[in-house]
């Protein structure tokens, strides 16, 4: 069987390639026709730089891990031919100590869609047809809009991040950096009962979207935060979603003593890290990485309309216009999320 795939070959080098796929009637696998996919920051890194960190593209790799599709062939009794499903891009080994302890996001042998971590690389979901493990197929109400359900994976990341903070109901929350992930953290925090959600960013456009997603108040990064730094800080929980050193330092300033900072943003190391603030205020600084069962939660929330991610959707392109879609997605001044359409 043939499929057209969106591949990256190196920095600024992408193509639409015809590939062979084989579905061997494996009872644990399902053949999916991909419907839509969302372009993520990692896809942009592979396109712009040909690598992420030390993981460099060594041969053509299919991009994409935010995808939904339609069942073409399956042996599963819970799935039906033609049914739309969200595809969980995580494929943990289920055998390492983390998987056995229910912490599969920390799997030592994770095979995550669209990753150059291994050689050969793990192909992603930006392709017309893909064979996946049946367990990766999560069903949802069939009348839910395609453009909404594509947000399942990034929303899962954000639900996991909010849950890292524990019970946030009635809490005062600060979010620094409201790109797509920060905005989805806003929405998730609102659903989970945050009393007040205050956001900051360099971009007024991003702040306007955050307001649409449920932020109580928004502040440009150059504005005065003095009132939130008084009395050892104002916020019970802070989500750092930019990764910039100045943002991390601000989060330490405005988080109250005994509060929590959830670190989502990835960036450079922080020079002259103000460790005394962390120590003296007894702040808990907690990392957040991917998701576990939160993918199913995200599918359920989106499928039932518990939140609306569409303020983030900036543009859609047919998959044949992959490079233009990536260039557009890289325009952070004007664009939030871009989706590729594989079939209607």
TrEMBL record:
Sequence ranges assigned to domain Alcohol dehydrogenase-like C-terminal in this UniProt record: 180-302
Keyword annotations: Metal-binding, NAD, Oxidoreductase, Zinc
Alcohol dehydrogenase-like N-terminal domain ranges (all copies): 27-141
Cofactor: Zn(2+)
Gene Ontology terms, MF aspect: metal ion binding; oxidoreductase activity
Family membership: Belongs to the zinc-containing alcohol dehydrogenase family.
Protein name (record): L-idonate 5-dehydrogenase
Species annotation: Conservatibacter flavescens
């Amino acid at each position: 069987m043939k499929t057209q795939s969106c591949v990256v070959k190196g920095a600024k080098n992408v193509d639409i390639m015809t590939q062979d796929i084989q579905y061997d009637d494996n009872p644990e696998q399902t053949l999916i026709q991909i419907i839509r996919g969302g372009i993520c920051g990692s896809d942009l890194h592979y396109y712009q730089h040909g690598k992420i960190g030390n993981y460099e593209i060594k041969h053509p790799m299919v991009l994409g891990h935010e995808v939904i599709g339609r069942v073409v062939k399956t042996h599963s009794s819970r799935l039906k031919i033609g049914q739309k499903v969200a595809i969980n891009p995580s494929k943990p080994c289920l055998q390492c100590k983390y998987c056995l302890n229910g912490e599969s996001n920390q799997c030592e042998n994770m095979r995550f869609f669209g990753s150059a971590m291994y050689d050969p690389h793990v192909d992603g979901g930006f392709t017309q047809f893909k064979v996946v493990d049946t367990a990766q197929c999560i069903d949802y109400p069939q009348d839910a809009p395609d453009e909404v359900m594509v947000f399942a994976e990034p929303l899962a990341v954000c639900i996991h991040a909010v849950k890292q903070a524990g019970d946030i109901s009635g809490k005062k929350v600060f979010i620094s950096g409201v790109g797509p992930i920060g905005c989805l953290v806003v929405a998730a925090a609102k659903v989970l009962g945050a009393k007040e959600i205050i956001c900051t960013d360099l971009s007024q456009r991003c702040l306007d979207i955050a307001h649409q997603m449920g932020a109580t108040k928004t502040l440009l990064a150059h504005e005065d935060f003095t009132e939130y730094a008084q009395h050892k800080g104002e916020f019970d929980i802070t989500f750092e979603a930019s990764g910039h050193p100045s943002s991390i330092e601000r989060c330490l300033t405005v988080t109250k003593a005994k509060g929590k900072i959830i670190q989502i943003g990835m960036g450079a190391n922080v020079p002259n890290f103000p460790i005394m603030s962390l120590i003296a205020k007894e702040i808990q600084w907690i990392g957040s990485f991917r998701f576990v069962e939160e993918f199913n939660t995200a599918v359920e929330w989106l499928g039932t309309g518990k939140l609306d991610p569409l303020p983030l959707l900036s543009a859609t392109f047919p998959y044949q216009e992959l490079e233009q879609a990536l260039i557009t997605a890289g325009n952070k001044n004007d664009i939030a999320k871009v989706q590729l359409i594989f079939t209607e």
